[in-house]
Protein 1
Amino acid sequence: MLRTDLPEIITETLPGPKAQAIIDRREAVNPSAIKCIYPVVIEKGEGAMIQDVDGNKFLDWIGGVGVLNIGFSHPEVVEAVKAQAEKYFHGMYNVVTHEGYVALSEKLAQIAPVKGDKKKVFFANSGAEADENAVKIAKAFTKRPNIIVFSGAFHGRTLMTMSMTSKKAYAVGMGPFPDGVYRAQFPYYYRNPAGMPQEAALDYYLDSIKAVFEQCGPADTIAAIVVEPLQGEGGFIPAPIEWIKAVRKICDENGILLVADEVQTGFCRTGRMFATNYWEESGVQPDILATAKSIAAGVPLSAIVAREEIMEASAPGTIGGTFCGNALACAAALKTIEIMERDDIAGRSCEIGEKVSKRFNEWKEKYPVIGDVRGLGGMIGLEFVKDQKTKEPYPEFSAAVIKGCAQKGLMIEGAGTYGNVIRFLAPLVMTDEQLEAGLDIYESVIKELLEK
C-alpha cells in the first residue's frame, strides 16, 4: 500500500531510534563532505513514498534529485532489470555488443531533439560524465580549446565539470582547474541589475557572451556554449526562448556548438520528454544533448546524443568506459521510456505543474517571504526573500522550511545561487491526494514559521 499512502510519523522524534543508530554508523565511516540534512534512513520506497527503518512514512518531493520521475520501484522496471540480471549483468561494450545498448541508442536517436538528420548515441554513468563527454566531442569536432558556461550553472563534480559549475562551494580546495572554461551571465530575469528595464535585459545577457569573446577567448576559439534549459542548482531558472534563439544564432555565426545539459530536465520532468522540445517548437535545436538522472529510474546511466559528423570526430579510445551502457541500466532505461510514452508522464508533469504553480502563486500573494515562482511543467522553484520589493535573499527561512517539512513527513530540497530557493522535483506518478497532502504540509510550515 505504500504507493498510495500519505505521510505518517509514528516515532516521537526524528530520526527514530533505528534510523539514528544507522546515521551514527554513517558518520563514523563516511566522509562528512557527503552531507545529508534529512533524518531519514530508507527501508523501502514505492511511487513517491519512502518508509524508513522505524516505520515512518515520508512523501518524497526530491526524487533522488530528479532521478525518480516514474517513482521508486516501478514494478515493470523491476521486472525488466530482473529479466536482464538472469542473463548477464555486464559486458563491456568495447568487448562484446549487447542488444540493449543498441536498442536504447536507436530509441534516443529517434526521440532526442538534436540538430541533424542522422544521430548517434553513446552512454556514460553519471550526469557529470555526460557533460564532460559532450565537451570532449565538441572539442574533437571543432578543433577548438575553449567553452562558455554560465552563472548559476551546475554541471557536476569531476575536475572538468567542477570548473564548469558556477558555485565554487562545490569545488573548495580542489584546484587548479582546467583552463579554457569561460563564464557569461545566465538570464535570471527576476534578478536583473537594479533599475534595468525588462526590455533591455535580453541585450544585457547577450552582451555578456560577446564580452567573453573580447576578454577571454575569441569566438573562433570557442568549441561549445553549454546551457541548462532550466537551471537546477542555480535556482530553477528557465532559459527564455528569445534568449536561446539568439544564442543559437551566435553559435551558427561563429561555428560554435550548442550543448544542452538535460541531466536534470530530461525525461518528462518539464512537461516534455526533453526540455529542449520547447526549443524545438520555436525552431531551435542543440547540437549535442547530454542527459542522465531519470533515464533509467534509478539505475546509473547517462547519455550523449549528437549528429553523426560530430560523433565521428572523436578518435578511437577517447570516449567510452568500463561500465558505460551497462546491460542492467539499458534494460531499465528502455522500460522507463516505454512507460513514460505509454502513460503520458509528460502530460502528468504539466498537470502537476499547473496545480503546484497555482498554489504557489496563491502563497506569493499571502506570504511576504515568497518572491518568485517559476519553472516548466513539474519542475518548479519557489524563491524566498526577506522583502518582496528589495528581493533580499532569505536562505535562513528556506532552510527552516525544509527542516520543518521533514519533521512532518515531507521531503523537499533547496537550491539557488543564494541558497534561498526550494525546488519541486516530486515523482510524477504521485497521486492527487499525495500532492494535496504535501502542499498542505508545506504551507503549514511556512505559516508556523511566520507566526513565530
Protein 2
Amino acid sequence: MAAAVVLPAALSKAEMATAMPESGGTYLYIDRALGPLFGTIAGIGAWFSLVFKSSFALVGLGAYLLLFAPISQGAVVYVALALAVLVVALNVSGTKMSGQIQAVIVTLVVAGLLAYVVNAGFVADAGRYAPFTTHGGSGIITAAAFVFVSYAGVTKIASVAEEVKDPGKNLPRAMLGSMAIMTLLYIGVVGAIIGLSDPEVLKTGGPGGTASLTPMADGAGALLGGAGVLFISVIAVVALTSMANAGVLSSSRFPLAMSRDDLLPSSLQTIDARFKTPRNAVLLTGVVLLLLIAFVPVIELAKLASAFQILVFSFENMALVAFRVADVPSYEPEFKAPGYPFVQVFGFVAGIALLTQMGTVPILGAVGIILGSALVYVAYGRPRTDRTGAIGTILRARRGEEDDGIAATEPE
C-alpha cells in the first residue's frame, strides 16, 4: 500500500529530474513549479525528513548492535553519535568516495536480505499469516503510513542529479528500478518476519514491553540458530549505517540549492576547495543529525520522517501537474510520466489520506515545520526573490497578462 502511494511521486520526480538535472531534487521541482514559498517549505521539510530518517537509522542500529557487541544499553546513543560523526566526515570528503562505499554496502545488504527471505520460505510457520488482520483495515493503513519513510530513498538520487552521468537516462532508471526492487524486497522481508517470529515477541519484545526494535533478528534463530541472529544483526547494522550515509549525502544538497536561490544564507553554497563537496551544508546537516540522535526518541523520529515525506511526495505530484499545465518552454523532460494526470491526482489524494492516519504528534510536527519554513521565507527569502514558478505562469495566462520572463525551471 505504501509503495502504491509512492509510485506516482516517483514517476513525477523521474520526469522532473530529467528536465532539471541539478542539485536540490524535491526542493528544486516544487520551487520552480509552485513558487519559492512552497519551495522553501518543501526544501526545509524534505531536508528535515531525511535527517530524521538518518537519525532513526543510527539510533535504531544500536538495538541490533546490543545483540552481538559487549556494550550497555546506555552506550547505544554514544555509538550512534560516533557513527554520525563518521558519516558526516565521509560526506565532506567526497561524493565519489561516499558513493563507492555505498554501492559496496548496498550490494552486500541486498544479498543478505535475499538470503534471509529465501531461507525463511522453507521454515516459516504458515499459521502465523492468519488472521490476515488483527486490528481491521485501519491498522493496515496506519502501518502503511508508518513505513512510508522506507521508500524515501528511491528518489534520493535526484538530490545529487548534477553529479550523475547522463541524467536523462540514468535518473529514471535509478528511481524506477530501485522502486521495483525494493518494493518486492520489503514485502518479502516483512513476510519472512511474520512467518518466523512469535507475534507476542514482535508486539512486546522491546524496551519496557513496547514493540520489538529488532524484528528481523527475533525470528532469525529459526534459520541458523545463534548464528542466524548474529548474521542478521550484522546485516542490519551495516544497512542502517548505509541508510544514514545516503540520507546525509542527499539531504545536504537541499540547503545548497536553496542558498543558490537566495532562500537561505549564501554561506551554505561554500564548496570545499579540496573535496569539491558542499562543506557547510553537510556540516549543518551533521549538527542537526547529532542533536536529533541525542535528544529525540527513535520511534518519534520514524513517525516525523514519514509524516513529512508523505506531504512532500504529495506536493511533487502537484508540481508535475503545474509544469504540464503551464507548458513552460524551458521544461523539456527526456522522460514522460505515464498516466498523467490521473496518476498524480491519485498520489496526492492517497498521500493526504495516509497522513491523517499518522496520529497527532507527527501531524503537529509537520504543521510546525510548515509554519517554521514559511517564517524563514517571509523573513529571509521573500525580500531576495520575485519569481513565481509555473503556477505564476498559469495564473497570469488566465488573467491575460504577459509572463514575467523568468523561466520556471531556472532562478532569476
Protein 3
Amino acid sequence: MRKPKILTTIRQYSWSLLFADLMAGVTVALVALPLSLAIAIASGADPGKGLITAIVAGFLISLLGGSRVQIGGPTGAFIVVVFGVIAEHGYDGLVLATLMAGLILLVAGYFRAGRLIAFVPEAVVNGFTIGIAIIIAASQLNDFFGLSLDSVPADFVEKLPALWEARTTFSMQAFIVGLVTMVLILLLKRLVPKYPGLIVAVGIGSALVVLLRLPVDTLGSRFGMLPNHLPIPHLPELSWDRIVELVPSAFIIAFLAGVESLLSAMVADRMIGGQHRPNAELTAQGAANVVSALFGGLPATGAIARTATNVRAGGKTPVAGIVHAIVILLIMLIAAPVAGYLAMPALAALLMLTAWNMSEPHKWKNYATAPLSDRMLLVLTMVLTVLVDLTVAIGVGVAVGFALRLSRRTDESDWTPPQR
C-alpha cells in the first residue's frame, strides 16, 4: 500500500492530538536545527543547505510517508557519500545525483520494493553504519581540538596523519568549548530526556565563545550569514554525460535513503506498537529527495534519532513532523543571524556524540557473540567503508552476504532481517 499515513490518522484527529503534535514538533525542531547545520558542514556543504533540506524534505516525508511518527531530513549516514560526491563532481553534481536518487526511489515505491529491506543482511547494515560513524567522528577532530589546517584531506587514511601533524596548533579554548558542550548534552539527556537538550547545550557552548570573546571559529566567521528565506526551485544543469557519470552516486544515495528510512520506521513501529507502510515510505523519500534537489538541498531520509525524539516528546501523527519543518522555517525566516554565533567546536561535539550513538555500542556485545560469518561480514563492510568507499563496501557486503546465504541453503525464514 502506498497510501500516506496522514490520510488514515486525520480521520480521527482531535484537539488533544493537535496539542501533542505541536509540542512534539517544536521539540524535534529544536533538536533537528543544530544537527542539520552540523551535518551539512561535515558533508562539505554550506550549513544553510542543511536547513533547506530539513524544511523541504522533512515536510514531504511526514506529509506523504507511511509512518505515523517518522521525522525526515539530512542524516549522518549521508555525510560520507555526500562529501565524496561534492569533492569529485561539485555541489551541482550532488544536486543532480540527489534528484536522480529521488526518481529511483519513486520507481521503487511504485513497484512495491519496500519489503526488499528484509533481504539486506543485518551484518552489512551494522558494518557500514559503524564505518560511517568512524569517519564522521574523525572528520570532527579538527574543529573539536581547534586545529589549524589549510585543508583537511577527505580520505580517511590521509586525514589522520594530517591531523597529527597539525597537533601543535591545538587550541585549549576550542577544546574546552567542545568538551563543555559534550558534557552538557550527556547531562541534559540523562536529567531531562524529553526536552531538547541539544540546542541548549550547543547554545551554552556558543555563548561562552561570545561572552568571553574566545578566539574560536563560529558558523558566521567561517561561512558568513545563513539564508533567511528558501531559494527559488530550479532544475540542475542536465546533460547525458553528466547523468551517466552520476548514476553510481544516485543509486548509493537511493539505497541509503531507502534503507535508513525503513529502518527508522521499523524502530518507530516498535516504540509505538504500530505498523508502517514501506512502499508509501519509499514514495515519500523519493518525492522528498526530488524536491530537496530542486531547492538545492541535500539528500534526505528518515532520521532514527529525531524520530525517537518525536515519540518520546509525545508525537502521535505525521502532523508533528509537518510542525517540525514549519518551526525550522520560521527560525530561518526570523532568527538566521543568531545561528551565525554557533561555535564550531560545539557543533563538532554534537556530531561526535551523534557518531557514537550511530555505532550503537549497546549492541557490540551481541555482535561479538554472533556467528563467525556474520562477524567477518560486519568487519569486512566496516573496513571497506572506512578505507575504500561506501559504494564498494555495500556492494561487496551484500554480494558476500547473499553468497553466505546460498551456501547455508537455509529457508527464507532463517535469514534474519535487520533489527534496529
Protein 4
Amino acid sequence: MKRNLTLTLMTFAMVAALSGCAVGPDYKGAPQIDTGTAFKEAAGFKQANPQDLAPRGNWWEIYGDSTLNGLMDQIKVTNQTVKQFEAQYRQAQAAGDVARAAYWPTLGLDLSASRSQSNTSTVSGTGGSQTTVQRSAVKNNYGAVLNASWEPDIWGKVRRQVEAQDASTQASAANLAAALLSAQATLAQDYFQLRVIDAQKVLLTQTVDAYQKSLTLTQNQYKAGIVTRADVAQAQTQLLTAQASLTDLGVSRAQLEHAIAILMGKAPANFSLEAQPALTATLPDVPAGVPSDLLQRRPDIAAAERAVAQANANVGVATAAMYPALTLSGSGGYQGNEWGSLFDLPNRIWSLGAGLTQPLFEGGLLKAGQQEAEAQYDATVAEYRQTVLGGLQEVEDNLATLRILQDEAQTQDLAVKAAQDSANLALNQYKAGTATYVNVATTQASLLSAERSALDLQQRRFTANVLLVKALGGGWQASQMTQNQTASAR
C-alpha cells in the first residue's frame, strides 16, 4: 500500500513538472512597423503636450454644444449596433471561462438502483425417482460512486487556448469601443450637418425676404414706367428659385433627423430635433501627437494586434495536438445489495487509472493544422500592419483637409464680403435708375452662392474635425481592454 502511494505521488510530481512547459511560440508583442516620427500634414498645427494626450473621455464636449452632449449621453445605452458588440463582448468573456475550465478535473456522481431476478434448477433423487426443482431469487443492487477524470496540461495546450481566448476577449472589447466611437462620430457629423442646414434655412429665409422686397420695388417701378416687364419676370424668377431651394432643404434635414434617431436606437416617429438659428458649436484645435500614439489610442488597431496574439497562441494549440495526451481517472464509492447497509466498509469500491494517447498516423492532418495556424498568424500580422497604415492615412487625410479648408474658409469670407458690397452697389444703382435689374439679380445670386459656400465649408471643417478625433481614437486607450476584462472578472 505504501509503495502504491509513493508511486502515485511520484507520478503526480512528474505530471506537475511537465505541466510547466508550453509548446509553440511565445508572443513577442505587436509586430514592428515604421509609423514615422511625425505626421506629414501636421505642420502648422498645435503641438500636443502631455495633457492633450491624456484620455479625453467625452471627446465631443470640446465642441461646446449642450444639445450634442445630451444626445451623446444616450447613444451608449440605446444604439443597437453598440448593444450587438456589447453582447459579443460578453460572449467572448464566457468563451474565456469555458477555456479556463479545462484546467480542472471533472467530477461526477453516479447513483444507481436496480432489481434483478435469477432462476436456478436443481435435480434431487436417484435413479428413476429424480425430480427437478426450480428456484428463483430476487436481488437488489445499489450504488453510489464518485467519478473523476483529469487531463493534465503537460504541453500547454490549455494554456495556449486560454491565452488565445483572452486575446479574443480583449479584441472584442476593442471592437466594442470602435463600434461606440464610430456611432458617436457619425452622430456628431450628422448633427453638425443638420445644424448647418438650419443655418442655411435662416440664410435662405432672409434671402427670400430680400428678393420679395426687390420684386415689390420692381413691380412699383414697372407701374411707373421706369423698367420693363422683363425686369419683373427676372425678379419673380429669382424669388421663386430661392423659395424652391428653401423648401428643398427640408428633405435633407428630415433625412438627417431620421438618421440621428436610428443612431439613438429610436423610431424616427419618436424623435425630433428643434431647429437652431445658428451653429453654436466651436471648432476646436485637435493636437495630433505623434504617429506611434495611434497604436495605443485607436481601438481598431488594438483589436488587430490582439488578433495577432490570438493567432500566435493558436499555433501553440495546433502544435500541442501533435504530442501525447495523458488522462488520469479515478472512482470511489459504495456498492451493495441492501440500501440500509450500503455505506458499510465491506461495500466500499475504488479504482485508479491512467491512459496515454499518442497520434501515430493521421495522413498529415496535425501537421497541416499547424501549418494552417502559422499561415493564419502571418495573415493577421499583415492585417495588423495594414490597419496601422490605414489609421495613419486617415489622420494625414484629415489634417490636410483641415489645413486646406482653413485657408479656403479665409478666402471664402473675403469672397462673401466682396459679393455683399457688389450686391449693395448694384441695388443702389438700380434704385437710382442707372442699372438694370439683371445686374441686381446677378450680384444677389453671387452673394447667395458665396454665403452658402461659406456654410458648406463650415460643415466640411466640422466633419473633418470629427473624423480627425475619430482617427486619433477619440478618448480611448488600449489599457481599457484589460481594465474592462479585469472589472468583469471581479
